[in-house]
Amino acid sequence: MSGLYIHIPYCKQRCIYCDFYSSATREGKKEYIDALIKEFEHRKDEIKEPITTLYIGGGTPTTLTKKEISYFFSNILKDKEKFNLSEITIEANPENLSQDYLEHLIKNTPINRLSIGIQSFDNKDLETIGRKHSKEDAIRAVKQAQDLGINNISIDLIYNLPQMDNEKLLSNLEIAKGLNIQHISAYSLMVEENTALDKLIEKGKLILPNEEEQIEQYDLTIDYLTKNGFEHYETSSFASLSKLSKNKESAFRSKHNSSYWNNVPYIGVGASAHSYNLEERRWNVSDLNEYIEKINKNEPYYEKESLSIKDRYNEYIIVGTRIKEGLDSSYIESTFAQSFSKHFQSQAQSLLKDKLLEKTNNNYTLTKEGEHIANTIALKLMK
Length: 383
Ligand SMILES: C[S@@+](CC[C@H](N)C(=O)[O-])C[C@H]1O[C@@H](n2cnc3c(N)ncnc32)[C@H](O)[C@@H]1O
Known about the structure:
The structure is a single chain. By secondary structure, the protein is α/β, with parallel strands linked by helices. The protein has 2 domains: 3-261, tm_1862 like domain (pyruvate-formate lyase- activating enzyme); 309-381, Arc Repressor Mutant, subunit A (Orthogonal Bundle), CATH 1.10.10. 41% of the residues lie in helices and 21% in strands. The protein contains 15 helices and 15 strands. The protein has helices spanning 29-43, 66-76, 99-108, 123-128, 135-147, 166-178, 196-202, 211-227, 255-261, 288-296, 309-320, 329-335, 338-353, 368-372, 374-381; strands spanning 3-8, 51-58, 83-92, 113-119, 153-159, 183-188, 230-234, 237-240, 266-269, 274-276, 280-284, 302-306, 327-328, 357-360, 363-366. The strands form 3 sheets. Strands 7-8-6-5-4-3-2-1-9 form a 9-stranded mixed sheet, sandwiched between helices. It is globular and about 60 Å long. The relative contact order is 0.11. S-adenosylmethionine is lined by residues 17-18, 20, 57-60, 91, 93, 117, 119, 156, 158, 187, 189-190, 192.
């Protein structure tokens, strides 16, 4: 198993909360796609086993025209023996998903999963956070995709938005449930430094729910979705239980994202994309023009770092405090030096006593109380 992530950094406009790398200019898109293809050509032998998942993320990949997206696919998938793809996802925005565009994706590309950035079904929220679509566009996009036969759809929602209360959140979740989709990514709003959101909050122009209300919205999201047919398999990820895999998990867990959480290698191609090969992490330059120029001049376009045992242990802890499977003490014992295992055991004991962790056999998972302070727990277990 291995994954390929492709970053398409174009957005028509920036959402006020966003600090992902993206650009509003559309000039040079062809040059960028050519640079992506070149990077992949250089790197395709880095991973020995066939690539099983492909994820095209952004930015907004659906700002690519039909012609650009066909050109991209016919070049990137040229070397057939490099791929044994089971999941091919594209991040899409509702306003780009016209009938015509969807038909093109279905007929002319191998995409079999859509991840639609909806964020909220409330038109006022959408306006506040700078989205270009309405509630009606979002519902239409999902239904149109379903009518055309796409049967693996995920939507992104954000809770704890300014002025959001439980009633509004519940209404968002009810609409999402009614759409019979296979996956929901529900994120708590993160206020990233220097974003427009950050500045508006600082000036008092937008007000967020208080800490207690934020925890309530987190609990409400989990309670509602788990009572309504979704498996909560990662902090922000919910997969429909309408189809199960052999080991009784939802068959609709995101295979690509799960590889990030399960120590599977992946190549990230494009400006600001990250890669991991079990030993090293590397990240490409963020700037679009610098990326194109460096790829074309065969100059170094990335930085990298080797992961020490301590880095790996800490990453295992961060991921394990987010995923349903939790942390496995026998894995820690067999993979890391004894000092790590000892540290884990002593910290875990005190967290068990405080009812922030619970234990089944060798597996440690966060209690509901623990989930509210997941970062603090991760810091306690880390070295
Ligand atoms: C890479 S982003 C962009 C995807 C898509 N182009 C869009 O605009 O919806 C993927 C998702 O991360 C979430 N996200 C991005 N920034 C966030 C923030 N500051 N707080 C919470 N969620 C965020 C949003 O739900 C978003 O759909």
